[in-house]
Design brief:
The chain is mostly helical and about 300 residues long. It is built from 13 helices and no strands. The longest helix has 25 residues. It is globular. The protein starts with about 30 loop residues before the first helix and ends in a 19-residue tail after the last helix.
Length: about 300
């Protein structure tokens, strides 16, 4: 799509040229994050305060509603704008698999399985034990449960989150900042969105603990991996579907491999290395390899 000159990439500090100018007036990330975090925390806070289990009644109802915060927010904001062309573009980015292409499909589907496999390999090489792979063993023993389990993973995270994070918020951030800066802003707020989960007994985040090394690796991985999401999104013609699938593979492969504390440390290091190489090789302005960005620096602010 053609863009006006006022929205060309301005080195590393200004908006990049990924987002069509016709849609910039609908991009309001500040309103989105205020509503998304507020709505999710509204449902999640009672679970933490009352000590309810997030995966049993009645806590699971509030837990599920809180997880829908990003998707519900983007739906309300898009419905409020009600521009047919913007709505059509939004839908196409969710359902059009042709935007991804074979090469980027391999990145989307294999990046985290490979990274997690390398992390486990480092654990073994440094004298650590392999995980029991309990989830993978159970699914292999009862293959009919694989699809329902995958559907559960998709619905409780990747789908409702990415409809908001990358489907709506990322365009608004990139309309104002470089891809690198937009990624970090989104990553920090995305990590903050998870904070109530650390106070819910029985959640994965509560097991990691608050302000522990595991907490640092978990939140750090979210922030840094946000760069990789933007990289894929921008190179697949703003495909929200690519972000949904990438998020799904992150969660699904992690569940199957059952990473322990040491493996999560190595996973974070590998994600940080990959994100650094992406910024250096593809440029911080748009993360698309635009030659004009190569001399612009790495920090991207």
């Amino acid at each position: 799509m053609a863009l006006s000159s006022e929205n060309e990439a301005e080195g590393v500090g200004g908006p990049n040229e990924v987002v069509p100018t016709a849609f910039l007036r609908y991009a309001n990330p500040r309103r989105f994050f205020a509503l998304a975090l507020g709505l999710s925390w509204l449902f999640w806070t009672p679970i933490a305060l009352l000590g309810w289990e997030p995966f049993s009644m009645p806590g699971v109802v509030l837990f599920a509603l809180g997880g829908l915060g990003p998707a519900a927010t983007e739906f309300v904001l898009i419905l409020r704008d009600a521009d047919p062309e913007y709505v059509r573009d939004y839908k196409q980015r969710v359902i059009d698999y042709r935007r991804i292409g074979p090469r980027w499909a391999l990145v989307v589907l294999l990046f985290f399985p490979v990274v997690n496999g390398i992390a486990l390999g480092i654990v073994v090489l440094t004298g650590g034990p392999l995980p029991a792979f309990e989830t993978a063993t159970d699914l292999i023993a009862d293959p009919i449960t694989i699809l329902p389990y995958a559907g559960f993973i998709l619905l409780f995270g990747p789908l409702p989150e990415e409809l908001g994070w990358r489907g709506y918020a990322l365009d608004g951030l990139q309309a104002r900042w470089s891809a690198f800066s937009a990624s970090l802003i989104l990553g920090i707020l995305w990590a903050a969105w998870h904070l109530p989960l650390f106070f819910m007994e029985g959640s994965f985040q509560a097991e990691l603990g608050l302000l522990t090394p595991q907490f640092a690796f978990y939140t750090g991985s979210i922030v840094v991996s946000s760069i990789l999401y933007t990289w894929i999104y921008n190179n697949t013609n703003r495909s929200t579907l690519s972000a949904i699938l990438f998020h799904f593979m992150t969660n699904f492969s992690g569940e199957l491999m059952g990473l322990g504390d040491r493996a999560r440390l190595y996973q974070f290091g590998l994600i940080l290395l990959a994100a650094t190489l992406v910024v250096l090789a593809w440029g911080p302005g748009t993360l698309t390899g635009n030659p004009r960005e190569r001399s612009a620096g790495v920090l991207g602010f």
